[in-house]
Sequence to fold (358 residues):
Amino acid sequence: MANSNLVEAQKAKNDEFYTQYADIEKEISAYLEFAPDVFRGKTVLLPCDDPEWSNFTKYFAQNFERFGLKKLISTSYAVESKKYKSGYQPTLFETSDPQFDNIKTVRNGKIFTLSNDKTGDHKVNVDDLEWHYLEGDGDFRSDEIKRLRDESDIIITNPPFSLFREFLAWIVEVEKQFVIIGSLSAITYKEIFPLIKENKMWMGNGFHAGNAYFSSPSANEYAEGIYNPETGLVKFRNVCWFTNLDHGRRHQPLPLMTMADNLKYSKHKEIKGKKSYDKYENYDAIEVPFTDAIPSDYDGVMGVPVSFLDKYNPDQFEILGSNRGVDQDPNNIYGRGSYINGKEVFKRLFIKHKRKVK
Ligand SMILES: C[S@@+](CC[C@H](N)C(=O)[O-])C[C@H]1O[C@@H](n2cnc3c(N)ncnc32)[C@H](O)[C@@H]1O
Fold:
């Protein structure tokens, strides 16, 4: 297979990863713990889903009353439009329904909605979900799904990885609240970094120990160690939740040592025993190669790894820019590359303590 075909095949596979119920529950619980009424009276849209068996749909439908939701909408993308098509079989749920349509089942997307008690048991839950075929294929970029977006308050999903930038732009252009899954490397994309810098988007509560496990129709095509045949899940290390809903972890201050203590006691050999932190030669900032080595008493600018964002507390720190290109640095200082003793240091964010610390 030509190299570009391989890349396309990989991208197509990367769009089909399904989120586990426990991960959704853990993430959403963090927002509820911080603001118990975060979903009350809200319309939640779950686009890019497969509502018949999506854990997002199941979780929100099961908790509809507890969260005080006004409406739940979940939509799926047509089988024929998907880049990765693995032996599709409509479910019994669909085929046994009078509206089942041989052609629409592959060509159209589906929509599931939940807003009130249909079964007459005085509860609103999974049994009250209504569904029908969409007019189109359920592409989030279509006018049909855009109308649903505009009607909703909060958008929650694990979108196709290959369209992550487009998906986020689609949310941001109408200023909706959101909780979505994406790759950590998205942080330094030029459309995404400004949102992070301006505290319009941040990292969510997170996957357990930073490891995300997904199911996938192509799971067994992954190497051993990434694919676990026992669980049938594929492991990702660099995947995280992005959101603009607040949660408690975001306000926990990062515990830090003074510069002198770091130089004496740091667990990192790159810091312990040195006389001072390295300084960048092309601007006034120190290099801090590990987030837990940020000195508590340094008032100046510090270059830190991108993984700092997982510990970023906006009450404690301010983000000034990144060295991933001039467009990520409004002051035109850090974007032109960072050098120490003639060597370039990549993927750094430039931060400062928010309050004077000395
Ligand atoms: C990463 S999967 C996640 C599925 C589900 N949200 C979950 O977390 O279990 C992304 C889904 O989006 C679908 N998709 C791909 N392109 C899409 C598009 N343009 N519009 C809507 N959905 C799309 C994929 O087929 C896939 O089912």
